[in-house]
Specification:
The complex is a heterodimer.
Chain A lengths: L8 H24 L2 H22 L5 H19 L6 H11 L8 H12 L9 H10 L3 H4 L7 H17 L9 H26 L4 H20 L4 H15 L24 H15 L6 H13 L1 H4 L4 H14 L3 H14 L3 H9 L10 H13 L3 H13 L4 H18 L1
Helix pairs in contact in A: 1-2, 1-3, 1-5, 1-6, 2-3, 3-4, 5-6, 5-10, 6-9, 9-10, 9-11, 10-11, 11-12, 11-13, 12-13, 13-15, 15-16, 16-17, 16-18, 17-18, 18-19, 19-20
Chain B lengths: L1 E9 H5 L9 H15 L3 E6 L7 E6 L2 E6 L7 E10 L3 H10 L1 H5 L1 E6 L6
Antiparallel strand pairs in B: 1-5, 1-6, 2-5, 3-4
Classes of the chains: A mainly alpha, B alpha+beta.
């Protein structure tokens, strides 16, 4: 908004809604400890803005105006419901919104709200959507498809989660240092889930998916800047920025998928890589090495190829080994298998690592079957490779990846016959 | 929980069943999907159906029988086949539905199978 004179009241309200919804809601919800009530009050404040601003003019600070009105609604409702136990909260609200420090603690409020959304008592599958809705104001009908849920179902799950926050009187205070680490891990996992859904979806050219991905990156920045002493928060943002840096090279000019090892490093974003390396450097200077910092280091090592022209597989294998020792997820073990196979230039070494994974845990794990097929093809096990890639294709729901795997399969076919 | 996946395909997709099974990407995508879902060990039963033009539909109204050639309703998407699967949750059933080739070209309907002792 460059030209204040031309801002209509509706545009001003809409701009305030987009720019500050999450910050306002976080502030209200953290003070009121009831996300649903805060949402209602804020919605009423926006309605009031649309009614009043055309006559009264747009206030000096739209955010402060909205916050004051929403706060009044919350107090009125508490009084009407005779919630005496909340008198102290009413006082706290009043304190909070008086004074000049309006902008200062916004970052912290959003972090607190996110930590509540990622509380262990909230179903992990609903946490990413809950965070996106409450902190960024994303609408349920926009997100539902990306999470493979109907609008109704996602709505019900979100309402249930908010009722639980209220019923269990979950603490909005920042957790103590020893409690913070596991809570932060859950929060980062939830943001990462939103990013992954958005990233996969982005391969299918969805605007919504693109937005999910972008918002997740933004939230990783909010967390990292609120917790500048947390190696995992910095490592997490670093990892997302490395992934973002390579995003433009993931699809070629014809619109087809390009896997990491075939990407042209000249198409990676050097500005994003620089920020990512800087965050990784800061994270590593803090000691304490967590899984996201290791993931960031792995992504960073892949990005060395932009400088040296070759991928440092030995280093990547060593990083994956540490990751698997501490967090033996399927994804980490698949990454280790590929890295070891390349580092030793021996597909059999990677196949042995994949073979040690419990088959019941990979029934739906698409990357496992892609990796298995890839290493089998390199080991000249053409028929096994075709069967593995076929399973990977059957587990893929994005057309661009389907086309890529279909082409890989077709390349194997002549050799089968 | 048991769910039925109903694969609805537009007529032009069903026509592609005449493609050469060896070289057609239509068949490749269905083979891939079926190999993944059967290998996951969740399929209880299932069949592909012959194209809708082979259907015959019977109605009895007030004791009078009418028989006509073709499917019961003209619609853009036609039932091409089905699977029943045993999975832990609707979420899991929906993940499998999203991977079906019919979800890209037509749609995949997911319905719970009624318990037998009802």
């Amino acid at each position: 908004m460059n030209d204040d004179a031309r801002i209509t009241p509706r545009a001003a309200a809409e701009h305030a809604a987009r720019a500050s919804y999450g910050r306002l809601l976080a502030r209200l919800a953290v003070r009121w400890r009831d996300v649903a009530a805060a949402e209602d009050a804020l919605a009423e404040a926006f309605v009031a803005a649309l009614e009043r601003w055309p006559d009264d003019g747009v206030p000096q600070s739209p955010e402060a105006w909205l916050c004051t009105v929403a706060q009044r609604r919350l107090s009125d409702r508490a009084r009407a419901q005779r919630v005496h136990s909340r008198e102290d909260l009413v006082d706290r609200l009043r304190e909070t919104f008086d004074g000049d420090s309006f902008d200062d603690s916004f970052g912290d409020d959003r972090l607190r709200l996110m930590l509540v959304c990622a509380h262990p008592s909230i179903d992990p599958s609903v946490q990413p959507a809950l965070i996106l809705q409450t902190v960024l104001g994303l609408e349920v009908r926009q997100m539902a498809g990306a999470f493979l849920l109907s609008t109704d179902t996602l709505n019900k799950r979100l309402v249930r989660a908010k009722a639980k926050i209220k019923a269990n009187n979950l603490r909005f205070e920042q957790p103590d240092a020893d409690e913070l680490a596991p809570r932060l891990q859950a929060l980062l996992e939830a943001i990462y889930a939103a990013y992954s859904i958005g990233r996969e979806g982005a391969l299918a050219d969805g605007d919504v998916n693109d937005r999910l991905r972008g918002e997740a990156v933004y939230l990783s920045g909010v967390v990292a800047s609120s917790l500048p002493e947390s190696a995992e928060a910095l490592g997490f943002q670093s990892m997302l920025l490395f992934c973002e840096a390579r995003r433009g090279a993931q699809v070629d000019d014809a619109g087809e998928f390009v896997p990491l090892l075939e990407q042209d490093p000249r198409r990676w974003s050097h500005a994003l890589m620089t920020s990512a390396y800087e965050l990784l450097f800061r994270a590593s200077s803090l000691g304490d090495v967590g899984p996201f910092q290791l993931e960031a280091a792995i992504q960073g090592a892949h990005c060395y190829r932009a400088r040296s022209g070759r991928t440092p597989w030995g280093e990547i294998a060593a990083l994956y080994k540490t990751l698997v020792e501490r967090h033996p997820t399927i994804g980490a073990r698949v990454g280790l298998a590929i890295a070891v196979a390349y580092a030793e230039d021996r597909p059999a070494s990677g196949l042995a690592i994949l073979g040690a994974i419990d088959p019941r845990r990979v029934q739906e794990h698409q990357p496992y079957w892609v990796a298995l097929g890839h290493l089998q093809a390199r080991a000249q096990q053409t028929e096994l490779a075709a069967a593995s890639l076929r399973r990977a294709l059957g587990l893929t729901s994005h057309p661009r990846l389907q086309r890529y795997l279909g082409a890989q399969l077709a390349r194997l076919r002549p050799r089968v016959e | 929980m048991e769910y039925m996946l109903l694969f609805n395909q537009p007529a032009h997709e069903l026509e592609r069943r005449r493609d050469d099974p060896e070289s057609s990407d239509y068949w490749e995508s269905w083979r891939a999907y079926m190999s993944a879902i059967y290998a996951a060990g969740i399929v209880k039963s299932g069949n592909a159906l012959e194209p809708p033009y082979t259907a015959t539909t019977v109605r009895v109204r007030a004791g009078e029988r009418t028989v006509h050639d073709g499917p019961f309703a003209d619609s853009k998407e036609l039932l091409g086949g089905y699977l029943t699967i045993e999975v832990a949750s609707l979420d899991e059933a929906l993940r499998w539905a999203a991977r079906s080739p019919s979800s890209v070209t037509g749609s995949t309907e997911v319905r719970p199978v009624s318990p037998r002792d009802r």
